[in-house]
Structure formats: C-alpha cells, structure tokens
Amino acid sequence: MFQLFKRVKTVVGSELNALIDKAEDPVKMLEQYMREMEADIRDAETAIAKQIANEKMLEKKLKDAKALVEKREAQALKALEAGDEGLARRALEDKKSHQANVEQLDGAYTRAREDAQHLRKKLDEMKSEYQQMKLKKDSLKARAESAKTRTKMNRTMSSIGSEESRRGFERMEEKVMQYEAEAETSEDLRSSNRSLDDEFEALETNDVDDELAELKKKLGK
C-alpha cells in the first residue's frame, strides 16, 4: 500500500526530467499519480476502520472476561460464607479458566491497539506527504505549462527572419526598385517627346516679349 508513495516521491523529487525523457506528458502523469495516492489513502482508511473495530471488539471481550472473573470470585466467597465449600471450589475453578482467557484477550487487545495506533500514524504520514506532493504537483504543472508555452513561442520566433523570409523581402525590395526605375524612365521619355509645336510656341512667346520691350523703349518707358 505504501510503496506507491515512495515511488511518487522519487518521481516528483526528480521533477520533470524522467517524464520528459520518456516522452510522457508530465501533467497527465502527475495527475495519475495523485489519483493513485488518493486510492491508497482510501484503502488505508478502510484497513484502519477494520482494525479499530477489531480493537473495540477485543476490548469488550476483555471487559466481559474480567467481569466474569470478579463475579466468580464473589460467588466463591458467597458460597464459603454459606458453608458450601464444593460450590466455592467450582466457582474458583471457573474463575481460573476465565482468568486464563483474560490474559489471552489482554495480549490480543494490546497488539490490536498498537497496530491501530501504528496504522493511524502511517495514515497521517500518507496524508501529510500527499499534501506536500499536491503542492509540488501544482508547481510542476505550472512549470510544465510555462515550458510548453516558451517552446511554442521559440519555435514561432525561429521562423521569423528565416532565410526564406529574408529572400522574400529581398525579392520584394528589388521589385519596388524596379517600379521606381520604370517611373523615372517614363518621366524622361515624356520630357524627350515634347512636340516641335511646343518648342516653336515657346520661341514665339520669347519674340513677342522682345517686341514688347522695343515698343516700350520707343515710348520712353
């Protein structure tokens, strides 16, 4: 019954390493260990209840046997007072028989009481250890969940900035640069494709300005 507690204590004492090495889910395994410990405690409580019942039964038999011894002694005394020595002898003989029974029952009762006390002590130890393992389990469960989260985040982060991602960014950068070059080229083509009429129009505008300046000069302005 108590072997499981030793096994669980060893597993929990080594924390998560052994479970992880076996590719087992630490949280599920710890929960299973706790259920087994609870079952052991219930079995121990049942055994103790039976032992206590046996102790009480022996105690009652011992009291009854002692009472009968006292009764036979009182009866023997009463028979002697009545002058019936034969009856007194028979009462004392029966008393002797019950006295032997008392001694036998007293030994059995003492052992039963000691066994019950021992089992109670073991049960208290089991419950105390169970509470300690429960606290440890909660701590390990939180650490396991945290480790899983960190592992998941690390795997996600490792994919960011990977070689494939960098190549993708470089391709997009080249494409943007290509767009910019095409835009500059189209701007240059637009400038070079100005029509002759545009150029002559600009030239004529300059001639009008010159003629206007001559007229102002003649007017003395």
TrEMBL record:
Alphabetic keyword roster: Coiled coil
Keyword Mitochondrion: no
UniProt KW Kinase keyword: no
Alphabetized InterPro entries for the sequence: PspA_VIPP1
Region described as Disordered: spans on this chain: 133-202
Biased composition (Basic and acidic residues): 135-148, 163-177, 187-197
Positions in coiled-coil regions: 27-75
Family the entry assigns: Belongs to the PspA/Vipp/IM30 family.
Name of this chain's protein: Phage shock protein A
